[in-house]
Design goal:
The structure is a single chain. The chain has about 400 residues and is mainly alpha-helical. The chain is about 75% helix and about 5% strand. It contains 13 helices and three strands, in the order E-H-H-H-H-H-H-H-E-E-H-H-H-H-H-H. It has helices spanning about 50-85, 90-115, 115-120, 125-135, 135-165, 165-175, 175-200, 225, 230-275, 280-315, 325-345, 345-355, 355-390, and strands spanning about 10, 200-210, 215-220. The chain has a three-stranded antiparallel beta sheet. A hairpin with a 4-residue loop joins strand 2 (about 200-210) and strand 3. Helix 5 runs parallel beside helix 9 and helix 10 (about 280-315) packs antiparallel against helix 12. The N and C termini lie far apart (about 90 Å). Mean pLDDT is about 75; it is low at about 1-40 and about 385-390.
Length: about 400
């Protein structure tokens, strides 16, 4: 079979067309397709078959994501309500509220972007199109929210570390208003840069095979990106996708380790001196342990993602969506996203388990909701009974 029988004639989605594969009798594929066009993952050098990669996508994105994302969105909304009720004038409440907001945004946009797996079950062509198109706004916003969550978690870890090591410095360095301004500025910067960079970087191309009359979609790098490639790669890939997550992870690991060591030393000293611990100290210790659990879960679930980004950054041969390890690359993305979703969906369980103040506020809010609901129902029944009497 000639190469021409298996290669399509591509068209941009819309009115613009171009003929990349005209007059292609037995021409080497590498001499025809430009290096910036994403190739399919059917290279015979692939260690994993495309079928396995597609099955992993289905299990993760169709089987597990809907349940985890739904649970995560609901619980993060509850987290926002609880911390807002406790008061955002407290810097920890503000940080945890911001973390819940960014986690909710990440879950929403990630599920929207990965919905191509479900769409593909109904219409493979449209599912493939949506898979390529989500490299713009949806992917950029989900990555941005994830980056904001990383920075917020790092801020929480550093704040707790200073509170344990030097409380006076923590009070002067980490004022509530300052932390709020930092989070807002970082969020605006990250979302703006990611949406601009990804909006410029990719084009989605419709490819049609005239022999089989089938269509598919591929993504390729835009001419604008190729013109300013170095600048966009530094700002987008090197800084936001590699350096920033790596620094956040290292900061969380170092801060968490310092806190654990200090807590062990303090606990040993208290056992020897047999001193009484005040209620304020107990509350501070409980909050610290809860936040340390959040940081530990973050480190466990984020390390594979950062490792994958470093592997890509180090340019391991073939470990790209366009390389001969394409299917392994796709599986690593699916598993990394799964861990990220678990990380952003489990904070509610940690808060409920370890924070008595959180449980008390949540119970109070639930009682208020039940009281309001029952009083509203009572008013409705009373109103109906009055109408019945008047009608009689």
């Amino acid at each position: 079979m000639s190469v021409a029988s298996t290669l399509p004639s591509p068209h941009l989605r819309g009115d613009t067309t171009f003929d990349m594969y005209s007059d292609m009798d037995d021409i080497n594929l590498s001499t025809v397709i430009p290096h910036h066009v994403f190739l399919p993952c059917d290279n015979p050098r692939n260690v994993v078959s495309p079928f396995v990669a597609e099955m992993v996508d289905l299990v993760v994105y169709v089987g597990m994501f809907p349940v985890l994302v739904t649970f995560g969105i609901i619980t993060n909304v509850i987290n926002m309500a609880v911390f807002a009720r406790q008061g955002l004038s407290d810097r920890i409440n503000l940080c945890l509220f911001s973390l819940a907001v960014s986690d909710t945004g990440f879950l929403l946009f990630l599920m929207c972007g990965k919905s191509y797996a479900l769409i593909s079950l109904l219409d493979p062509v449209e599912g493939n199109y949506w898979q390529k198109r989500h490299y713009t706004l949806v992917l950029a916003t989900s990555l941005g929210c994830l980056a904001i969550s990383n920075i917020t978690t790092a801020l929480i870890a550093v704040e707790r570390c200073l509170c344990i090591l030097s409380p006076l410095k923590a009070a002067s360095f980490f004022k509530t208003r300052t932390m709020g301004v930092v989070i807002v500025v970082v969020a605006v910067y990250i979302l703006t840069v990611l949406n601009t960079a990804l909006g410029i970087k990719y084009q989605t191309v419709r490819v049609t095979n005239p022999l089989t009359n089938t269509s598919t979609f591929i993504s390729r790098l835009s001419p604008t990106y190729l013109r300013y490639r170095t600048l966009i790669d530094i700002v987008y890939s090197h800084v936001l996708l590699v350096t920033l997550p790596f620094i956040s992870l290292v900061v969380v690991i170092v801060s968490t380790t310092a806190i654990i060591v200090r807590l062990q030393v303090t606990s040993a000293w208290r056992r020897q001196s047999v001193s009484n611990v005040t209620s304020l100290e107990k509350q501070e210790l409980t909050v610290t342990r809860m936040l340390m659990t959040v940081c530990c879960v973050y480190v466990t679930c984020t390390t594979p993602t950062v490792t994958r980004a470093l592997v890509v950054f180090s340019r391991v041969p073939g470990f790209l969506i366009t390389g001969h390890l394409c299917n392994i690359f796709k599986i690593s993305i699916a598993l990394s996203h799964l861990l990220e979703v678990i990380n952003t969906s489990t904070n509610f369980l940690i808060y409920v388990k370890q924070s008595s103040r959180y449980r008390c506020t949540l119970r109070h809010m639930c009682r208020c909701a039940v009281t309001v609901g029952s009083s509203g129902l009572g008013d409705l029944l009373a109103d109906l009974s009055v109408r019945d009497v008047l009608s009689v």
